[in-house]
Sequence to fold (539 residues):
Amino acid sequence: MTTIQIYDTTLRDGTQSEEINLSTEDKLRIATRLDQLGVAYIEGGWPGSNPKDKRFFDEIRQYSLTTAKIAAFGSTHAAKATADTDTNLLSLIDSGAPVLTIFGKTWDIHVTEALKITQERNLELIRDSLAFLKPHAQELFYDAEHFFDGFKANASYALTCLRTAWDAGADILVLCDTNGGTLPEEVGAIMDQVRQDLPQARLGIHVHNDSELAVANSLAAVRHGATQVQGTINGYGERCGNANLCSIIPNLELKMGLTCLPQGRLERLTDTSDFVAEVANLRSFKRQPYTGQSAFTHKGGVHVAAVRRNPRTYEHIEPELVGNKQRILLSDLAGQSNILFKAKQYGFELDKGDPFVLELLTELKNREDQGYEYSAAEASYELLVNRVLGRARTYFRLVSFRIMDSVFTEAAEPFTEATVMLRVGGVVEHTAATGKGPVNAMDCALRKGLGRFYPNLSEMRLLDFKVRVLSGSLKAERNGGTASVVRVLIESGDAKNKWTTVGVSYNIIEASRQALEDSINYKLFKDDQKKLTQAIRNI
Fold:
């Protein structure tokens, strides 16, 4: 089976995405996770460009990577310098990286207008830089920047640049679609011409996504002879991003029958995608193919009925192959199949036509008509199911609550206080708390009042809060939107789990109260379930 080398440049090219800024510690954490995934190369950065990347190469030497080789990135030497005096090339050697990658100009317009040198001088930069680095590298790669645009403008010169790099000692010639504007059929045709001109050379591909074709172009390059593919996790990168390895890797392995990761590593792909997003402080893209939360999610009743019989009806691969999982959502598009599937997840074996199923389906559609969104708040739905079946206790009742916002001086921040009266069993608890805004104050007051009854609530934290104004209301139109129904989604979590709950009302505080109550009840309910399961095991 043909092996394709995966060259990950998340830590270098990926960090050029405008919303990403990784510390040295972040880069080390990601590098170790990429090694666990099994990529062949990890490009750690440009040691000659900034102290942070230099520190990365100093630190990564202390790590024992099992699969990946570390690569340092730089450019051909400055036109006014020589290779042996160029600080950029010397920093590559000082990095101690076993793999060195440099880029050079292959598009004549960049040579004459960006570098303002002759075409012959550019060939000297390529030749001298690679020849100087060759003795210091286990492997030496040449990134032919803007190669495809350069080939289309002046094929003879672009090929001469490649030939010069190969003769100077490059182990792989990486053809770059730097502007991301090349079509897949162009990539294939140009790759074929390169292979004819340099039949002995090993070729790689580095593609940007400005035309939404980076993945397609990378696969096209492999079909036409590329044995190395460069890209980033989640497609992070400058402008529209780089080729997305989270799509490229499973396409190569599952669709094209090629090997690019060690055996058994593909199932780590989804966790790796989520981990990199988390370290980069970005939300994972739900609709990302293969690894996104929605990649194997089904909402329509017809779809759910089909995948319950055979997942292949609406899933192109088994989600577990890439470490993902199938999800069934509940919404106003749901049918009985959705209810049956979710009930089975919660431990209930129900049949079509069961009065409970019909009642729950009707309730679900009515609530979604009011604005509830259970497809995004499965914790609220699980509580609803268990309450109807009588499996969820009434942990507390909120008798009353009051929120007060005050501003004492123009320069001071608003002061928010929440007062709540709770009934827990036969005990009434009356307490108050302050917070940063009404939702935080109410959350603090609720958990303060419940703390002595349920100490495990101290583990719980509110992680995210979203408010959406639901349009389409005549009353909202007459009042300029200020009287609209609002939907509040609250994401909460503890040390091990995260869950989302929902509330809907014309009053944003009331909607928040509903979502907060559900969130607390869900934590208590799930903890009770764990205790029950453990007790049964101990019998």
